[in-house]
Specification:
The complex is a heterodimer. Chain A is α/β, with parallel strands linked by helices. Chain A has 20 helices and 16 strands. In chain A, strand 10, helix 11 (about 310-325) and strand 11 form a beta-alpha-beta unit. In chain A, helix 2 (about 70-85) runs antiparallel to helix 8 and helix 17 (about 455-465) crosses helix 18 (about 475-495). The radius of gyration of chain A is 28 Å and the shape is globular. By secondary structure, chain B is α+β, with helices and mostly antiparallel strands. Chain B has three helices and four strands; from the N terminus they run βαββαβα. In chain B, strands 1-4-2-3 form a four-stranded antiparallel beta sheet. In chain B, a hairpin with a 2-residue loop joins strand 2 and strand 3 (about 40-45). Chain B is globular. Classes of the chains: A alpha/beta, B alpha+beta. At the A-B interface, helix 2, helix 3, helix 4 and helix 6 of A face helix 1 and helix 2 of B.
Chain lengths: ~550, ~90
């Protein structure tokens, strides 16, 4: 047998990227509640019904808590739990157990196990993972009846929770301040536990090689990236971990303080710092990183990788989720309408091949030629605007006629929604991308037609330099290319700001995320910078260092 | 009686979320709504108003399910569910 202090390594599937240190804390099979005889079917049924009502209430409280802490996707499990708690198949099974003479908790356990068994028998990995949900809800109902909330005491040092399979309910109850991570012998990367762990930033090792409870209390390093658990680690391992922890903690605490601070220069100029996102999942990362709004919500993710087109409902739900997430932030959620062309085509659109797609039917040009496609998206965005400050942004604008035509479509769709008595924000903002030199040059005139601008620096660079940035033989144009682009931005800024006090100019391309250019961009007149979530704190740090 | 086929194109098949959407929609109608899945092992049936029943069909992406709707509001129910199926993805 292994002696307790002998180092040993267990492998599994890592969730997350971090490494943590903690003492192993075994959570065995739940202690069976004290045996209890039925006190008569009627009494047991009453008790079960009362517990069911309370369990539903608890579940919907967990839903709200998780929604706030980890976002919609992570929270949706509790919606499902609530439905399971209302499911007649579950209730009938419990009632029939009670009628057969079982006590309420025994009948619940039996029903839960028997339904979990059905899910476990399914071939589909996602569906068989639902067995844990079935067990979770039945153990919730049981513990309400027996009054046994399992308290997990400890000495306050970090813990690595080890168990067969953590239920989502358990995961949310974990105190992330004390729980360093968790290890399960079962589970899958699709299990809600894994999803929750990712969302709540807890490293985990799932499907780990099994070991026994004799290791309870032993020190261990859980390294999600290495996908291993090192029990009784060697001094060298500890030293290595300590160094990486120190680095991570220093950076984390610095970033944490930054997230709550405004992006303001030393002289007091306030810069709006928004995030670029390409999915609803990224919106949650942006929210947690302290983004004041979404400066660029690329809608293409809804369209790419499929053979059909997303309907109005599907689009509406995605836009609404982000709009309501950011409803309590100062800035808007700027949704860019479909930016697609022959270079990144969609099978469902059957686009004609073009000799020169970068200069062809893309962005707004394509959308205006496909009114049904465009109107569906406009309606979905308008409807989402009822849930939080939202704005529409048009890609690839070259002339004011394109904005005017779009505004007609927007106004017609608004009329239809009014007629159908569907809620939307009457004052929804309209902005355009500055990607063509023409848009930069004519910004003053274009500003009469819209509320704000955002420079897509990658495309503006490509169109200004007439150089494809993917072509490495043209890399020599990079360095000298910054100045002409900056001059265009400055020109646009002057045109926009002289057109109206409330018109604003943002930057959402790669240049916005380059700390070396932040000062120049602010000097050129940028009011807003929009970058992917991981860059937010770095750029904010830079802005706060500028005079 | 109304019936129609639907081939699942959700990534995870008829997993919890889409199944929940169907159940919520089906409950609005008084018609009986049955979903049948044919596979090599034979036919499986589920009550569209019951989540556990529907999830235990184990219907996966690429598999075809058939809706059978019978009752006073069957045509409305069929229309609603068909629209829902068309929109259901991801």
């Amino acid at each position: 047998m292994n002696s307790i202090a002998k180092p040993s390594l267990f492998r599994g599937i890592g969730i997350g990227e971090t490494a943590v240190y903690g003492k192993i804390r075994f959570i065995g099979e739940k202690k069976p509640a004290p045996e209890r005889k039925s006190r008569g079917a009627a009494a047991e049924k009453r008790e079960f019904d009362a517990a069911l009502t309370q369990a539903r209430a608890e579940t919907s409280a967990l839903y709200r808590k998780t929604l706030a802490a980890a976002g919609k996707e992570a929270a949706s499990i509790f919606e499902i739990h609530e439905m399971l708690l209302c499911d007649p198949d579950f209730i009938d099974l419990v009632h029939s157990g009670i009628s057969k003479g079982l006590s309420a908790p025994d009948a619940v356990r039996e029903a839960g196990e028997s339904l979990a068994g059905i899910f476990e028998g399914l071939e589909d990995e996602y569906l068989s993972a639902r067995a844990a949900d079935m067990r979770d809800i039945s153990s919730r109902v049981c513990s309400i009846i027996t009054g046994g909330e399992d308290e997990r005491e400890g000495d306050g040092s970090p813990e690595i929770i080890v168990c067969r399979d953590l239920t989502p309910g358990d995961t949310v109850k974990l105190d992330t301040e004390r729980v360093a991570g968790f290890v399960t012998f079962a589970g899958s990367v699709n299990s809600h536990t894994a999803i929750l762990a990712r969302a709540m930033d807890i490293p985990a090792l799932i499907r780990a090689e099994e070991f026994g409870p004799e290791l309870d209390g032993a020190p261990a390093i859980l390294d999600a990236q290495a996908a291993s658990l090192s029990v009784n680690p060697t001094p060298e391992e500890m030293l290595k971990l300590a160094e990486s922890l120190q680095r991570r903690e220093a950076e984390r605490s610095r970033l944490r303080t930054l997230a709550a601070l405004p992006a303001v220069t030393k002289s007091g100029r306030r810069i709006a710092l928004y995030a670029n996102i390409g999915s609803t999942a990224e919106a949650e990362a942006a929210y947690r990183a302290g983004a004041e709004g979404i400066g660029l919500f690329r809608s293409e993710f809804l369209f790419i990788g499929r053979d059909d087109l997303p309907g109005e409902e599907e689009q509406f739900e995605a836009y609404r989720d982000v709009a309501s997430l950011f409803a309590d932030r100062a800035g808007p959620v700027v949704i860019r309408t479909l930016d697609i062309g022959a270079d990144k085509s969609l099978p469902a659109l059957r686009l004609d091949a073009e000799e020169n797609p970068a200069l062809g039917m893309r962005g707004i040009r394509l959308c205006l030629s496909r009114p049904e496609l465009f109107r569906t998206q406009i309606r979905a965005i308008l409807r989402a605007s009822a849930y939080g400050k939202t704005a529409i942004m048009l890609p690839m604008i070259t002339c004011s006629d394109e904005i005017a035509r779009t505004k007609r479509i927007i106004s017609e769709e608004k009329n239809r929604l009014r007629f159908e008595e569907v809620a939307f924000d009457e004052s929804i903002g309209l902005g355009i991308m500055i990607e063509t030199p023409a848009a930069a040059i004519m910004a003053h005139e274009l500003a009469r037609e819209c509320d704000f601008f955002s420079v897509g620096t990658n495309d503006l660079f490509q169109y200004t330099l007439a150089a494809d940035r993917q072509n490495h033989r043209l890399a020599y144009l990079e360095e000298g290319g910054v100045e002409p682009v900056m001059r265009l931005i400055k020109l646009a800024s002057e045109g926009i700001h002289s057109a109206g006090e409330d018109k604003w100019l943002g930057i959402c391309g790669e240049m916005a995320a380059d700390v070396k250019l932040t000062e120049t961009l602010l000097a050129a007149g940028a009011d807003e910078l929009s970058v992917s979530p991981p860059y937010l704190s770095r750029i904010k740090d830079r802005v706060r260092g500028i005079d | 009686m109304q019936s129609f086929n639907h081939t699942l194109n959700c990534v995870g098949g008829l997993h919890a979320r889409p199944a929940g959407v169907i159940v919520n929609a089906a409950k609005q109608f008084s018609s009986d709504i049955l979903i049948r899945k044919l596979s090599a092992e034979g036919a499986k049936e589920a009550d569209a108003k019951r989540l556990i029943s529907l999830m235990s069909l184990g219907a996966r992406r690429g598999e075809t399910i058939t809706f059978y709707i019978n009752g006073p509001d069957e045509s409305m129910a069929a229309e609603k569910l068909q629209a829902l199926c068309r929109e259901m993805v991801g």
